Every structure is written in structure tokens, then in C-alpha cells.
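Dissemination and training. As part of the outreach component of the grant, students in the summer workshop were shown how a complex can be specified as a set of sequence lines and then modelled as a single object. The example used during the hands-on session is reproduced here so that future cohorts can follow it. Participants entered these lines:
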Amino acid sequence: MIAVRTGRQDLRIEDTLAELRTRLGWSPGRGDLLAEVRDGLIDTADAYRRAGWSPAEAESRALADFGDLERVAAAYADRDVARSARWTALALGPGYLVCLSGWLVATRLAGATAGSGTGIDGWVFGLLGLVAVLVAAGGTYGVRGTARGRTGSTSRPARLLAAGSLSCAFTTLATSYLSSPWTLPLGWPLTAIDAAEAVSIVVVLGMLLTAGWTLACSARAGRATQLNAASAGR
Amino acid sequence: MAVDRVKGHLDALLLAVLESGPAHGYAVIEELQRRSSGALDLPTGTVYPALRRLEDAGWIKGTWSTASGRKRRTYALTAAGRRALASERTAWSAFSGSISQVLEQST
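and obtained this result:
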């Protein structure tokens, strides 16, 4: 068996890739990431072989050069968080504005008064529109911030962005429910306002789930980075 | 050199290597070691996620090809990457100049 000391067992290139696959969990494009790592490991082992090392020793050295698997997996996880945050920002920016604008326009066209009889006036929805503009601006800023994260970052901008979107989406849902307990389009014919309300709720709920998922990924990456920092300090 | 010392400068180093022309991950690592005369002996595993992150930022563009029956990803610097590299160089000159001033100043 080719010896690469990992602290747990001796691993070969394919075993290392399998271990990395497990640590990465489900991740978009995981197969491509692993193919790239495999190619790099084989190149490194080939270089050692050309330098005169035996195939077994060359493979061992290539794996030793690769470094700590936890650190590599954490770096990929940080990247996933940044990507999730960017997608959340992109969904929030135009998505939130289109969603709320469509809702308001449909309400006006249908002649309905937002919040009638509930104590919540139409200005609340105007305020929500303003919040949406601010969220869109924050999302754009977040996209810039997360795109320029440094290696080993704990994706703080990503966490802040996700937390902001979570709060915004939750507030929108709560306000819309208080204004008019959701009239889901269970009846027929489906009116424009029914459809607009339903689409709005689904979109905002989707953003809520996306933001929650981003936060969960961020927490996972943060834990991994902290673990790495702790193990590096030992 | 410890990876922690390079942290924060890895982006600029990778962009600088790719400024010479497109390269795949292992070639980038080799070039880093060659240019630093072996001083930048980073764990190779730190380079691949960094390349993907730079690609996400739009500073480099990766394309797949097949070489000797193996899938290989080659990266090339983009126009945005060139601007980012210029900015990193300016920032590094200012930073290293300040540090040198402090270290070399006798009391």
C-alpha cells in the first residue's frame, strides 16, 4: 500500500478523491472539481516519476503536496457560500422589485385596496417597495463584496447578505398576511389579483428558503474554517 | 513558505502567473514555484479552489479540454482580471513600501 500519512489511514489518489467527495457533500459541479483535482494530482505524480521517484513514492509525494483535505474542502465550501449569496442577491434584486411591483399594479388594476379593513394601509406596501429598492442596492453591493472574497475568508459578507434577505423576505410575508390573510387562488375563475398574490407569496417564500439555505451553508463553512484554524493552531 | 503568509496575496499571485498566458492548475503551481525559486511551496490543494473563486469573480475564464485521455481545465486571464491585477500591484507596492520604511528605519 502506498503510504500517505493522513492521521487516520493510508490513502491513494482515488481514495483521497473519494474522501474529498464525501467532505464536499452535494455541491454544484462537484464532478468537475474532482476531475480537476485528479488531473493535478496525476500531473504532480508524473513530475515526481520523471524526477526518478518510484511510482508508489511519486504518488505519495503528490498527495503530501496536496495538503490537508479539511482545508481544501473548507475553501470549496467558502466558494459555495459566496456563489449562493450571489444568486440570492440576483434573485432579490430584480425578483423582489418585479414581484412587489406586479402585486401593487395588479391590486390597483383590480380596483382592490390593499389592507382594507385590517388596519394596514396601502402606504405599508409603498414602504415595502422602498425596502425592496434598498435590498436591491444591498444585493448589488453584496455581489461585489462576495466576488472579491479572499482565500480562507469565512464569507462574512455572504452571511450578512443572506441574513438581510431572510429578514426582508420574512417581513414581506408577515406584512402581507397581516394586511390580507392570504387568499390563495383555490376558487375558479382565477382573477389577476389572485394570481399576482399567489405568485408573490411563492416568490417571496422561495427567497426565504434560499436565504435560509445560504445561511446554513455559511454556518457549515464557518465551522469548517474554525476547525481548520483550531487544527492549525495545535 | 507557510500558506498563512500568502493568504490575502494568492489572488494576485495567480493572476500574475496567468498574465503570461493560459495555463492549467498544475502548470500554475509549477510557475509559482519557479518564479519564487521554490519559496512559494504552497499545498497544491489550496490553488484549485482559489482558481475557481477567481473564475466566479470573472477575473479568469476556465475551459475544459482533453489531453492524453484526461479532462483538463485551462484558465486564461480576462480583461477584468487584468484590471484587478493592476490594482493588486498598486496596492502591494504601497503596502510593501510602507512595511519596508518601518523595518528599515533605525531608531
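Chain A touches chain B through 34 residues (CB under 8 Å). Students were then asked to discuss how this feature might be tested experimentally.
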